[in-house]
Amino acid sequence: MHPIIEKVTQDIIERSHPTRSAYLKYIDGVAKKGPIRSGMGCGNLAHGFAACSAAEKADLTGDQKANIAIITSYNDMLSAHEPYKNAPDLIKAAIREAGGVAQVASGVPAMCDGITQGQAGMELSLFSRDLIAMATAIGMSHNMFDGALYLGICDKIVPGLLIGALSFGHLPAIFIPAGPMPSGLTNKEKARARQAYAVGKIGRKELLEAESASYHSPGTCTFYGTANSNQMMMEIMGLHLPGSSFINPYTPLRDELTQAAAKQILKFTALGDDYRPIAHMISEKAIVNAVIGLLATGGSTNHTMHLIAIARASGIVLNWDDFDNLSKAIPLIAKIYPNGPADVNHFQAAGGMGVLIAELLRNGLLHEDIITVGDERGMSHYCQEPKLIDEKLVWVAVPETSLDTEVLSTVAQPFATGGGLHKMHGNLGRGISKLSAVSEDHQIVEAPAVVFDDQADFLAAFQRGELEKDFVAVIRFQGPRANGMPELHKLTPPLGVLQDKGFKVALVTDGRMSGASGKVPSVIHLCPECEAGGPLAKVLNGDIISLNLQTGDCNVLVDETEFNARKPLPNTAKNHHYGMGREMFGHFRLNASSAETGASNLFICD
Is the model's pTM score more than 0.85? Predict the structure, then answer.
């Protein structure tokens, strides 16, 4: 094992000892041998299986068969979640055949950041993660279940489901992916159309045609944003069946994997001899594996918050220093859009997760000894991929090397020697930068600040032609307490246009960018946020800002005495707390923790 990985893991273990011990003590105290429902009163149990068939009622009345909860994020508007439509029936039939019972315990909300980008609804997006965790807990709180299957795929849904699952950490859990849509219009062509629209070269009709050719069928978007980063992390933490993350929906293999996951969960309940509660699966080593996977693939910046919240839900204290230290050891060995032209289907064809995991294990860059949902407990089992041979699901060894080294390379010949995410620091606070998609000649910027409190004001200034110059866009009051920390991905096309014209441009904000953060240098998630009096609220138009993504430095070049004497400027943005349901989330904004502590309302393990 690489010494930096060993040290970071040990630091996390020691730092987390009080909260992790308390969490496991509680969880282990809740665990019991035998069906969970066996302690319920007759009236409680009768309500619990009133809608079941006579055979299921007989099974649930006894004390031999497990009852498995299904928590689903199905809806038929979002392409990623539409494939879950038939999953409950597949799962129930498979579990019934294997000797158990399954019930849909609850549905959870699932929103799409792609739909709400630049819209008022985006200000509910981050908080939906904690709401999903709460909805998961409500479904599980009926206390009828011996294990759970979680159906979710996109940005806040998987983290929310996992946080909720960890509140019921005494139960085994398997996450079931739905898979990406087949490849459509290339991501490069889609980006080109967006930039052409931003400067008026094409109209709305042509832009919609391009977008529709890219997002064209059931399944996740094919670029490597937060949704597909979720799937990578679930597999590298051992919560998916090996090789199941990126199999397209509505294919025979996808359905077989869903049924196999359903049968697999029955092996891990407390009724059997191979009890695998999720509380012990999400260990310090599993969390480190997730960070390693994120760095090795250039994954979503959103997970610098989500992983911290997930870790805290299991009593583990993860921080941005851990990400930064691990980035010194983990090379970037995958190039998937926005880090390159390929999409996740190309990554899968090159060897996918199995080849990635095998390469990391060979080089001592991944913890093998974690508990997984595979037939064998360790990560070595994940160097396999599923196949249908003679209509039977089997796992075979992955190719020894990548089938496309332009998409999936090796530790010996990486695309970059360091991981794709860096911690940023300086007199503007602490933040995050994703540099895996930023070319080296754009990684250092020093330019005057242009300050906005609303992304709409930036876009209007761009349309007026006021930004044809070198500048650093400062977008303030975008943190969780200010307005829910929306993604600011609408800024990417105009910033990309200006960068292509030869201007030195960058973005500095206490808000988020999309999981598809791209070629424009940015410093995001700055803490403390402006709403909490963070130093970014002191920056004035014309102040020179220097940022260096290579060294992690981000500073405003103002005399220290003068800058310290400034008072934070007030928020000039209006109408971000009402309409589109935002008025109901006031308590979420008021109680949100910082981005570096997960931007959570749940205060888990505090």
Answer: yes
